[in-house]
């Protein structure tokens, strides 16, 4: 090690705890009064949705390690065992959920009322509202609801993952049956969570569970409710096919999706006032841990919530009509000049490379690329990977149209795209019926790269047109996520893409990659080589620099290479949206590394890596984060940006926006805490996404990459003290 430094567990941040801090930054956006009110409501919903997936996948995996003896897939460099991680997760989640509840109850609900959006309870109903509630229950809810008693002759039902239920203690007041009764009612997902009980043009809502709670005597005739409380279970939803054998992957995935309904519970959320009898019944039935101690600290899988459960439903409230003033201003993505459908689109790509930065640039050219190819009589073949796509996908429809038009169409569909498996299965069957050659990739690798290739006859020659991206072929998320895409007809890139498709469809190997860097073959090795090259330059007294914008940084070997480069004197700027296991600013280890995270209106999803500076720097875009799963268990692609004008756009418009952000950026401190970036002296407020939107509207370009990383305003490490605001 340079300087004789030996890397120890304390030099790394735990992956799961780092992810929780990312979700804490999402929660901060909900707590921030400078955000429009309904955007704050949206962030509360996103926080809950994120937490659900975290429990369904990450916590579920840790439970298998802690209580089932399953070996971890990746050995964490921080050294924490599974049980210790579960205990710390439980403690931190309780803190965050308490903050979320206070934000909703004490900040958002009163602020909504000031804006004419009211939430009422049964005790506050006026006559008109009570009549609306009665009509709603009788006409819409009652025919759907199923009252379920729980006793020896009525065993406990199988509670659905993330389903919301009311549990009730009932006492017989007339008729036949047991004197006391436990019962549950599921809140149907086909009904809205927020029921409008206001007059026309009013926004007065009551929660569905409050309506059902006050109507329990109608559901359970002859019984009166002595106590009721809502609850919700989260189950293990991870699909693991790495060790599964089978000739038909589609059937294997379908079987595993059915098995999800019977998976183990990993979390029980209950309203804080649930009585002991009901809680004991649920804990016992689901075999959950409620009082387990780890090194003297309590670990519990039961979470009492002070208020409304399942705040993912707030996404419904955030979309109420007529309140545009309470949302971010609408925007129209910048059209890409010169990229029109038909022959002109292909002629432009034949002439020059084209870079698209979504959502600031329209996603329409990507859709047009496939649609034009489907209709163009000169196009011979289309090949495309599909990881996630929209529910009504114009791209998939274009592929089907192309096949029906007699073109050779191949779609590599990743059936193991978590939580999109069912959608991908449905599209696969439709494409097969249309004549598309559908391939499902590998049993033990996810195909996560994003590429499409069009083969076109042009006179006596055949030319290949390629699109490579950092994000999915999904027009919906292309308006919500930041991503980058490249159109090119570069022959060497096209050769590599042809070889990659041959590998995906037929295991063809032995190709010598000219431009693409591909996982699992050599992406990790090449990444570390490029980091080491910058370290060698710095040791030789030459200019060196590393910039990386990623979703996550977890891989231990890559982090150690960055530590080595820092000790060699390489300035390193990292923009890591989510998990970051690297500790910046450690004396003698990472003093030259700065890490920031940006959480804002759009989900930061683009992956940009730059090695070196000036005209000779190497600029890459990638489908992969720096994580063991991306390097070892996925097919990923890192691809170069070589056209000078595109490199200038990345270096002079995109990267500086992120390094100058002093509004939505948080800076990672050596102890793992994130603090808000602050303006330097009299520096004006800078917000990356807002500046990029402004640039897409034709405003002046932002400062260059060199100015951003060399100038005084980018000195993030000068924050004073643990809790000081950082640049």
What does this structure look like?
36% of the residues lie in helices and 21% in strands. The strands form 5 sheets. Strands 16, 20, 21, 22, 23, 25, 26, 27, 28 and 29 form a 10-stranded mixed β-sheet that branches. It folds into 3 domains: 32-326, Polyphosphate kinase middle domain (polyphosphate kinase like, 2-Layer Sandwich), CATH 3.30.1840.10; 343-508, Endonuclease Chain A (Endonuclease, Chain A); 518-718, Endonuclease Chain A (Endonuclease, Chain A). The two termini are 30 Å apart. It has 20 helices and 29 strands. It is of the alpha/beta class. Strand 14 (408-413), helix 13 and strand 15 form a beta-alpha-beta unit.
Short descriptors:
Endonuclease, Chain A, ten-stranded mixed sheet, 20 helices, polyphosphate kinase like, alpha/beta, disordered C terminus, 3 domains, single chain
Quick rundown:
This protein has 727 residues and is an alpha/beta fold.
SSE blueprint:
Blueprint (H helix, E strand, L loop, with lengths): L14 H17 L5 H32 L13 H33 L2 E3 L7 H15 L6 E3 L13 E9 L7 E7 L7 E3 L6 E5 H7 L1 H4 L3 E13 L13 H12 L4 E7 L4 H11 L5 E3 L2 E3 L2 E4 L8 H5 L24 H9 L2 E5 L5 H12 L3 E8 L7 H11 L3 E6 L7 H14 L2 E3 L6 E2 L2 E9 L2 E9 L11 E8 L2 H16 L10 E3 L3 H17 L6 E5 L5 H12 L4 E5 L16 E6 L4 E2 L3 E4 L6 E5 L5 H5 L1 E7 L3 H17 L4 E4 L5 E3 L11 H9 L8 H6 L17
Parallel strand pairs: 1-6, 8-11, 13-14, 14-15, 16-27, 19-24, 21-22, 22-23
Antiparallel strand pairs: 2-4, 3-4, 3-7, 5-6, 7-8, 9-10, 12-19, 13-17, 17-18, 18-19, 20-27, 21-25, 23-28, 25-26, 26-27, 28-29
């Amino acid at each position: 090690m340079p300087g004789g430094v030996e890397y120890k567990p304390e030099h790394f941040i735990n992956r799961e705890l780092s992810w929780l801090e990312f979700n804490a930054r999402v929660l901060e956006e909900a707590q921030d009064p400078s955000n429009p009110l309904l955007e704050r409501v949206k962030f509360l919903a996103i926080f809950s949705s994120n937490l659900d997936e975290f429990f369904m996948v990450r916590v579920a995996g840790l439970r298998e390690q802690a209580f089932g003896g399953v070996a971890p897939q990746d050995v964490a460099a921080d050294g924490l065992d599974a049980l210790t991680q579960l205990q710390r997760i439980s403690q931190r989640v309780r803190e965050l959920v308490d903050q979320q509840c206070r934000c909703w109850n004490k900040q958002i609900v009163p602020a909504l009322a000031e804006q004419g959006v009211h939430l009422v309870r049964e005790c506050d109903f006026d006559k008109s509202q009570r009549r609306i509630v009665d009509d709603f229950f009788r006409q819409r809810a009652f025919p759907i609801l199923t009252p379920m008693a729980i006793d020896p002759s009525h065993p406990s039902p199988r509670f659905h993952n993330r389903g919301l239920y009311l549990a009730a203690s009932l006492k017989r007041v007339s008729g036949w049956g047991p004197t006391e009764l436990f019962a549950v009612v599921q809140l149907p997902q086909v009904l809205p969570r927020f029921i409008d009980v206001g007059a026309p043009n009013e926004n007065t809502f009551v929660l569905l569970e409050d309506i059902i709670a006050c109507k329990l005597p109608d559901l359970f005739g002859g019984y009166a409710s002595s106590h009721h409380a809502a609850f919700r279970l989260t189950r293990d939803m991870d699909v693991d096919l790495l060790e599964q054998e089978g000739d038909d992957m589609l059937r294997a995935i379908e079987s595993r999706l059915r098995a999800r309904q019977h998976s183990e519970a990993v979390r029980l959320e209950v309203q804080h006032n649930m009585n002991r009898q009901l809680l004991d019944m649920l804990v016992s039935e689901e075999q959950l841990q409620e009082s387990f101690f780890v090194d003297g600290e309590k670990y519990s899988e039961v979470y009492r919530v002070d208020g409304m459960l399942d705040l993912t439903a707030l996404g419904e409230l955030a979309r109420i009509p007529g309140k545009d003033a309470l949302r971010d201003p609408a925007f129209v993505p910048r059209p890409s000049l010169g990229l029109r459908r038909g022959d002109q689109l292909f002629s432009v790509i034949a002439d020059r490379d084209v870079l698209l930065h979504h959502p600031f640039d329209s996603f329409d050219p990507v859709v047009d690329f496939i649609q034009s190819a489907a209709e163009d009589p000169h196009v011979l073949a289309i090949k495309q990977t599909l990881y996630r796509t929209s529910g009504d996908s114009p791209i998939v429809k274009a592929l089907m149209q192309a096949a029906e038009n007699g073109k050779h169409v191949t779609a590599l569909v990743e059936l193991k795209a978590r939580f999109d498996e069912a959608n991908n299965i449905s599209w696969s069957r439709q494409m097969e019926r249309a004549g598309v050659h559908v391939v499902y990739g590998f049993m033990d690798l996810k195909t996560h790269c994003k590429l499409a290739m069009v083969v076109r006859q042009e006179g006596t020659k055949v030319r290949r047109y390629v699109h490579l991206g950092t994000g999915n072929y999904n027009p919906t998320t292309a308006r919500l996520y930041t991503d980058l895409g490249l159109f090119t007809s570069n022959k060497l890139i096209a050769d590599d893409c042809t070889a990659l498709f041959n590998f995906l469809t037929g295991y063809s190997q032995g190709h010598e990659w000219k431009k693409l860097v591909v996982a699992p073959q050599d992406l990790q090795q090449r990444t570390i080589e490029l980091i080491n090259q910058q370290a060698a330059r710095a040791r030789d007294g030459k200019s060196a620099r590393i910039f990386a914008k990623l979703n996550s940084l977890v891989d231990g070997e890559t982090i150690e290479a960055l530590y080595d480069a820092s000790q060699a004197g390489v300035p390193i700027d990292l923009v890591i949206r989510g998990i970051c296991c690297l500790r910046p600013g450690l004396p003698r280890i990472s003093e030259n590394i700065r890490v920031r995270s940006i959480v804002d209106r759009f989900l930061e999803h683009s992956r940009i890596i730059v090695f070196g500076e000036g005209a000779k720097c190497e600029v890459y875009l990638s489908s992969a984060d720096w994580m063991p799963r991306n390097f070892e268990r996925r097919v990923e692609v890192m691809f170069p940006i070589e056209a000078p004008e595109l490199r200038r756009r990345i270096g002079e418009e995109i990267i500086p926006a992120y390094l100058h952000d002093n509004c939505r950026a948080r800076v990672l401190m050596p102890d793992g805490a994130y603090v808000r970036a602050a303006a330097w002296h009299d520096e004006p407020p800078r917000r990356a996404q807002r500046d990029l939107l402004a640039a897409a509207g034709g405003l002046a370009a932002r400062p260059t990459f060199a100015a951003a990383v060399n100038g005084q305003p980018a000195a993030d490490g000068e924050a004073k003290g643990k809790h000081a605001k950082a640049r």
